[in-house]
Amino acid sequence: MEITYHNTRIDYDEERKLGTILTLANGKIGVRGELELIPIDSCTLISGVYSDVPIFHRDIVCLPRTVGVYIIVDGTPLNLVDGGFELKRTLDIRTGVVKTKLTWSKGKSLIYESTRLVHKVRKNIIAVNSRIRPQGFQGEITLILPLEFASSNPLPPGNISIKHYRICKVKGCDDTIVTDIETLDDKYGITIALKSVTNTQCKRQIIRFPHSIGEALSFKVMGDNVYEVTKFISIVSSRDDPYYHEKALRELQSAIQLGWDNLYREHAEWWRNTWNKLNLHVDGDEGVERALCFNAFHLLQLGDEDSEYCMIPARGLHGVGYRGHIFWDADIYTLPFYTLVNPVIARKMLTYRYRLLKAARKMAKERGYRGAMYPWEAADVDYDVTPDKVPLDIKWEKWIKIWTGEEEQHITADIAYAVDFYYQYTLDDEFMEKYGLEIIFETARFWACRVEYDKDRGKYVIRRVTGPDEYHVHVDNNFYTNIMARWNLLLGVKYYNLALERNEWKKIVSKLGVSKREVETWCTIASKIYIPCSSDGLYEQFEGYSNLEDYTINSLECLGQECLPEIVRNRLEKTKIIKQADVVMAFHLLGDLFRKEDMLRNFNYYLPRTTHESSLSLSIYASVAARLGLTSLAYKLFRKAVNIDLQDIYGNTRDGIHVASAGGAWCSFLFGFLGLKVHNDNLTLDPKIPKHWRKVSINVVFRGELKNIKVE
Amino acid sequence: MEITYHNTRIDYDEERKLGTILTLANGKIGVRGELELIPIDSCTLISGVYSDVPIFHRDIVCLPRTVGVYIIVDGTPLNLVDGGFELKRTLDIRTGVVKTKLTWSKGKSLIYESTRLVHKVRKNIIAVNSRIRPQGFQGEITLILPLEFASSNPLPPGNISIKHYRICKVKGCDDTIVTDIETLDDKYGITIALKSVTNTQCKRQIIRFPHSIGEALSFKVMGDNVYEVTKFISIVSSRDDPYYHEKALRELQSAIQLGWDNLYREHAEWWRNTWNKLNLHVDGDEGVERALCFNAFHLLQLGDEDSEYCMIPARGLHGVGYRGHIFWDADIYTLPFYTLVNPVIARKMLTYRYRLLKAARKMAKERGYRGAMYPWEAADVDYDVTPDKVPLDIKWEKWIKIWTGEEEQHITADIAYAVDFYYQYTLDDEFMEKYGLEIIFETARFWACRVEYDKDRGKYVIRRVTGPDEYHVHVDNNFYTNIMARWNLLLGVKYYNLALERNEWKKIVSKLGVSKREVETWCTIASKIYIPCSSDGLYEQFEGYSNLEDYTINSLECLGQECLPEIVRNRLEKTKIIKQADVVMAFHLLGDLFRKEDMLRNFNYYLPRTTHESSLSLSIYASVAARLGLTSLAYKLFRKAVNIDLQDIYGNTRDGIHVASAGGAWCSFLFGFLGLKVHNDNLTLDPKIPKHWRKVSINVVFRGELKNIKVE
User: Fold this and answer.
1) Which ipTM value was assigned to this complex?
2) Which of A148, A215, A289, A470 is an active site residue?
3) Is the Cβ–Cβ distance between B107 and B23 less than 8 Å?
4) Does the domain made of B559-712 have the CATH classification 3.40.640.10?
5) Which of A16, B303, B353, B624 is the Cys-Cys partner for A654 at CB 3.0 to 4.6 Å?
């Protein structure tokens, strides 16, 4: 499975998009995929390595670029901007590498080919294997193989950048370059070591500039010989190992000893095994199969099996969009994929949420609630990293207030939902005992405090929130939030009852002081949570929604606000137009709670009122449409959702992969089209697939066993 | 007169300091002096070209670096960081150029020599003439001659940078590189054109990278031949010419036609003529003569004789310290030098202040005053650009409130003082008619409103200001401010009376509606302004100063707060410790108003209480000490003041030249040591010079005539 791009010129916008699409990562390290042959803003990210930043609290740190390879022919650097070449780049998903082939034909001709990898087994290793074939000329070719320290993070409105690390020491000796850097908040130390290996005779020098250090290897070339160089890089952070400096040297040494061929083989084998295990086939729809694989590839790249816990940022380790923060995207959109394909990652993602319990308890307490209230945006610290406001102009005089941090409280129920989901598919009792139950009880506890009793209605209400649809803030009784809060309370009840039958679980109940009486309260509240309905039997997205100005769009053609007339754009909050699946989101997660005809009526109502401005929308509508038997519509929505990055549908793929849409497309596929579900302790299927999918096959992990799913 | 630096390694801190010291400028363009042979943060500034920035309102824009020259020998770039070379750099003040000589002896040996200029006559032209002599080897040498687009401005606390320009178009054809850029606020367009010329056969290519475009010239070298290349650059902004693009091409073409030799000759001649005209000699003290010349050189570099008006930023066109803003440094510290040495610049500086009258009137009005209240910090816009607060930490959570913009109101009187000073030495009637009178009347008007009548005292008081000493804010009746306000009012009276005798001036009086009655009020207020004195006959820096905790230091040894114990540093505002000359500043400007014995007593009192944390202090104490006959003490203070940048005494020369101290040292010399003064329409002398100054000679311009001053 290969994704290939051809260029005869360098276009920077295109290059930044490819930078994301061709990103290689292994869960620990992410290396952006811009062309290695040109100096360009590009960087390396390490999972969990953040630093302090104005406004956004914490930034995932753009670390130095490691993969640059610059070619000098007879003294003159190759000018790759003005054409005169053919460039072919391939993301080879099967083996997890990026291949680059440059055919240079201006002046002296040569062919440059390389293979780049971010090792999936040796998680601190990056390597670029380059081969140059001069096309029948005699002269001198120099390869410059640098470590580049220019990388920095952008701050809005875009022309400001912040460099999050200082270089403590740069040493180049014995042909090994070793750099020690530290984040400016002093929280992390990182060592990057680099050495290039060739078996051809060459002149070798270390070259230092203020913002780079590198090796220069010069070959006297003649005829059509092949000159091969491998750039080995190791990166280790103090997050990984307290003796990170020593480990970086050790890992580099051992990669070099292994040699490029073996290193590549080991890496490619991991990927081949992974694909074999997944065994995905969508016969009759190569495009969808390919796009699903592309999304799976990038999701699988984000999992670190060796780490204590996994953080899945909204834009992956593929870019600095959303500053590397972690949202509900992780728990609701990607966790189901991981649970079914690589459950160890799903577990580590929830372990990360468990680590945040301290922060969540603190947040609840500060607001006068009991239990745990999760931060809307999270990073490597135990506090919410949602910005409070964001500047709109160059002078930072105009700001927009960001309400999500205060109001988008459904995140807390989303995490409890994810814990239960994970447990349903894995029966991982040990996880529940160590982490899961505590999350479920503490979040249930939060909602029991968060609701208010409305005497007039005789119902519990949740006032002043923002639902998934962020066009409407400060709303009361958001359908999605209330449904999920109820679900969270009921999970509390369910796991309490389960716990009564198990000694190990009982300990958790007593440790947390969950009493029978408290659980009865959860039960009462759950049964009386107000669920807004309008008079015509529709679910109301929030109280008062039905009184808003109505406006409908062709939601299949439109993406974002551009399909709206300006007059509507300027008063969005006064209209029924919504940003993304909200009521329909609840159907996606908890479809069994609703009658099919109700879901259908609501689906048909909300779809033409949704702009899909968020990339979290299409996949959910697709999933629910499939469940409702609207197969053709489902397929149309799904085709868009599954191609969001491959086709750069939102025009911002440059900022990183859309993790939620990659995971969401997989959810549509697995739960929408295939209708996977846990029923009476069995994994059941209820396929509603497009006719032209002649055969669908995939292996998923269910409760420790690999199961083959086949629909023909 | 040459300032020479030798290096055998590149040290970046040293390089940034040299970047300032070796800056070349012509009043329109400033080019920082970092070594051209290495890629390093360095930039080009254009006088008056600012853009919007958070916190600081306007930033002088760091424009692309133009002067880089990178050497590749046999395919490998010269590695200038790890030694193996000798580097000699010379600022040749006589001819206004920087000369660089690199003797490279690692591997293949070569000598690189260059001369760099920023043309003082053709104000849009920069040129670097480079000559390479390989030391008896055969091979290939490539020179890369780029335009580099990485430059950006820093934001505190230091790791944030803001790029103020966008690149609209980069074109390289016919061996000419033309780049159009715009500031992000859309206010200015700039064209930079570049072409390299050599008369030796070479291979020539244009090389483009994302952040640079340049020419690559490759020479097959042998033996000891000399390979010469001149990089010609033209820069024109829309501030300069609406057809700046065309002008840039035209200017480049005409410089190339003239050729390096003639271009250099024309430039060097301007400087030789300037020095001949100045004719400075301090026989017996080469160090002082040299330092005065160094300061004069940088001040003269800042004057643009061809511009409509001149802005002299606090750190020159030498760096982005104080973000290119204009303070009283210009009017009080440098204007006297320009008035006596190059009065056309002094006039244009005041023309700039005239242009700000609109802003000053608006500021006064907003605060409920009449007349004009000048902004403490000014730039290219008609509003105050003083920051309101400045962040102290990386997250921008801790801020320090900046009071100067609201309180340091003496700037208004300082500008009126400068107008009168200029007129005294030039009798430039036309200037007064067009600009000067209006400034004087409008500022007098401001003070007449600004004062409050204190019935108990029967005096006019000025409450809540900050004087030059910024350790004490919100003070009432600051001695310096009150003295200067009084002077400003008296200037109003004086010029009103003069105006009555001249028809042209009378028109201004009537245009502004200045009435006899109003002027009588000025007179009354001036005679009754409260001047704070303590009981022991000392002038009190402000009301209540004498009640503060006393503490004294050895102010000759100390510079800044470091000489203070921590306990004092933490409660500076409660002590008598001051930052810089304040009472003594008034003696410097208006010495004739005070009795010598009073000045002496006060001088002796304030000196041991001054930290000289501001570079604006030493030169003023030196000047007043000289006037008071404390010649030896004066000389000690002066030696420090005159060397502030040459010896990097404040450790921040990297941010740009200390314009106020350069001008202040000249004030000490001219008015302190030589005792120049206008007396009865004559320029009089009252020398109090150190004994070892055997002979002092200088030419100054007085009322249109060049006068030779000689003290033997």
Assistant:
1) 0.86
2) A470
3) no
4) no
5) A16
